[in-house]
């Protein structure tokens, strides 16, 4: 099978090359993202392998299909960046990696919480400058505080497990109830209750048309003053403009973002010598109580290895015309 591998990065190529020894696929590596302007590169391949910021809208899918592409292999869990109806119409298989390391994302999530709470990002800079003042560095005990988890699937559950270890009270909002969540002592709650009672709110649900900008000025208004918000799920779940207003009033006390609605034009690239044309991003990165990471919550050796293994296994199933349980259309 000939595979066009978009949005390639060295750490991805290393993991896929290692696992491809078992398959012997012919992989062509493209650093560029797959989108309207690059879709023609995919023509002539059997499959495209894509990541979170590749943009497979109806036009891209049509161009790929015209070029003979039959399979779309997502090397991620979320698939909000693929027009599934268009893929169905084109008769293309779409496969994904439903879980590669929930713990990797959960650990990064809690890392953001602890860093923000205890000002570790500021301490790192201060001590390098021999500034040992503790002014402005006061945090709070996580123990005894309430965490509100929105979406308790694999990553939400792994996050709950760590937060339980910290001694937090756990509230969960998820339309689907899971005994594993209840067994952890967590309580399911409507969003209004979760907003009103949580000291820390963390998003772990997929982005769907129904929950776009789930966190916005109306939801912030229902939250505790000084609430900590963490988003390691998808940028579109949070209205960043409204979040800035809420930071300015002190309603949001800490904001940790591993994902950003406009990340497609920023993340996974070195933009350090460019003038970034995104005022919201500049505002967010200027606040001392905001931490942005560039969609790296998944980035552990274990996760990369699992992503490569499952993606190539998915493609092997399709190559052999076998049923693939990670097919989503
Ligand atoms: P999952 O499918 O195991 O769990 C998602 C949960 O969200 C399910 O329990 C579902 O019932 C629930 N849910 C769906 N709509 C909801 C809503 N409107 N409100 C509350 N809950 C809702 O997915 P998993 O593996 O836990 O991943 C969650 C999300 O994390 C992915 O969709 C993806 O966007 C994000 N992600 C981010 C990564 C990163 O590196 N930052 C890496 C991997 C995933």
TrEMBL record:
<dbReference type="Pfam" id="PF00389">
    <property type="entry name" value="2-Hacid_dh"/>
</dbReference>
<dbReference type="InterPro" id="IPR036291">
    <property type="entry name" value="NAD(P)-bd_dom_sf"/>
</dbReference>
<dbReference type="InterPro" id="IPR006139">
    <property type="entry name" value="D-isomer_2_OHA_DH_cat_dom"/>
</dbReference>
<feature type="domain" description="D-isomer specific 2-hydroxyacid dehydrogenase NAD-binding">
    <location>
        <begin position="110"/>
        <end position="297"/>
    </location>
</feature>
<comment type="similarity">
    <text>Belongs to the D-isomer specific 2-hydroxyacid dehydrogenase family.</text>
</comment>
<dbReference type="InterPro" id="IPR029753">
    <property type="entry name" value="D-isomer_DH_CS"/>
</dbReference>
<keyword id="KW-0520">NAD</keyword>
<dbReference type="InterPro" id="IPR029752">
    <property type="entry name" value="D-isomer_DH_CS1"/>
</dbReference>
<protein>
    <submittedName>
        <fullName>2-hydroxyacid dehydrogenase</fullName>
        <ecNumber>1.1.1.28</ecNumber>
    </submittedName>
</protein>
<dbReference type="InterPro" id="IPR058205">
    <property type="entry name" value="D-LDH-like"/>
</dbReference>
<feature type="domain" description="D-isomer specific 2-hydroxyacid dehydrogenase catalytic">
    <location>
        <begin position="3"/>
        <end position="329"/>
    </location>
</feature>
<dbReference type="InterPro" id="IPR006140">
    <property type="entry name" value="D-isomer_DH_NAD-bd"/>
</dbReference>
<dbReference type="GO" id="GO:0008720">
    <property type="term" value="F:D-lactate dehydrogenase (NAD+) activity"/>
</dbReference>
<dbReference type="Pfam" id="PF02826">
    <property type="entry name" value="2-Hacid_dh_C"/>
</dbReference>
<keyword id="KW-0560">Oxidoreductase</keyword>
